[in-house]
């Protein structure tokens, strides 16, 4: 039975464990996904992201844990869970030998829709995913982006309110990836809950309401993208001057800054927030000082990922914004 609390939660996992032999893949992790949101699970290859998706979508069983999906207990009523979810994996379920329309109609048959209803749903989804012109063509002729859109359209035939997207844009070009992002945003705006795994940190930053970082079988950190970025030190504002006198005056006004007398630059620790930046500019204005260049650096999800998942990864260069 769906309780009032569970209605507001699409997915909950408490103490989720899974091991293969002596290798523990998921070591008692907890996850909570509010309804109508995007939850992203990040982690290095082999961290257990796909294993988590397979367990929560009833494809494999957990070794331990209390798991609820769509308000249903996974251990007691997996069939009800299957009726509430859709799954789009890393590898397309599209049959290339038949047309895009026939792929969707096949899914409609599997969902026991009448022929009339199946054709109505197929036409609606083909239009929604901009596949109408290619509907009668074999899916083998589709581009990678078109196949991904068709795959997701097939997932939506049964009207699931919870969708698992396991690395849905892997291998797509940037334009196709952005098209998929737009589709995912529209699904969420319609109240669908999305559990997303991705190898693209930018994708999680763009889409996810909450992000969990999986490392060594455990959740290393969880929060919004902004909350996670604040976990990593190193944010700063850098001021550069061409006039030595202005530089010296600024150094006196900003005594907390780190000086580089040769480059005439000052570096001030900062989380990059608007309030901090405004306060700094007000202090400079009050002292009658104007910098020739102001740059900000705030940690991004790349920095978070590398900090939380170990030293084996080499981080990207810091990203700065010139103002």
Can you give a write-up of this model?
This protein has 2 domains: 4-94 and 142-229, P-loop containing nucleotide triphosphate hydrolases (Rossmann fold), CATH 3.40.50.300; 236-298, 2-Layer Sandwich (Alpha-Beta Plaits), CATH 3.30.70. Helix 4 (100-110) runs parallel beside helix 6 (144-155) and helix 6 packs parallel to helix 7. It has helices spanning 4-7, 49-56, 78-84, 100-110, 115-128, 144-155, 174-189, 201-207, 225-229, 244-253, 274-286, 301-308; strands spanning 9-20, 23-34, 38-42, 64-69, 72-73, 85-88, 162-166, 193-197, 210-215, 218-223, 236-240, 258-260, 265-269, 293-297, 320-322. It is 36% helix and 26% strand. It is of the alpha/beta class and 323 residues long.
Write the layout of secondary structure elements.
Blueprint: H1 4-7, E1 9-20, E2 23-34, E3 38-42, H2 49-56, E4 64-69, E5 72-73, H3 78-84, E6 85-88, H4 100-110, H5 115-128, H6 144-155, E7 162-166, H7 174-189, E8 193-197, H8 201-207, E9 210-215, E10 218-223, H9 225-229, E11 236-240, H10 244-253, E12 258-260, E13 265-269, H11 274-286, E14 293-297, H12 301-308, E15 320-322
Parallel strand pairs: 3-8, 3-9, 6-7, 7-8
Antiparallel strand pairs: 1-2, 1-4, 4-5, 9-10, 11-13, 11-14, 12-13, 14-15
Helix pairs in contact: 4-5, 4-6, 6-7
Average pLDDT level: 88
Count of discrete structural domains: 2
Which blocks of ≥5 consecutive residues have pLDDT under 50? 1-6, 312-323
Helix/strand order, N-terminal first: HEEEHEEHEHHHEHEHEEHEHEEHEHE
User: What is the β-strand count?
Assistant: 15
Structural class: alpha/beta
Distance between the termini: 55 Å
CATH homolog superfamily of the largest domain: P-loop containing nucleotide triphosphate hydrolases
What value does the Rg take, in angstroms? 25 Å
* DSSP helix fraction: 25-40%
Q: What is the overall number of helices?
A: 12
At CATH level 3, the topology of the largest domain is Rossmann fold
In spatial order, strands of the major sheet run: 6-7-8-3-9-10
CATH class of the largest domain: Alpha Beta
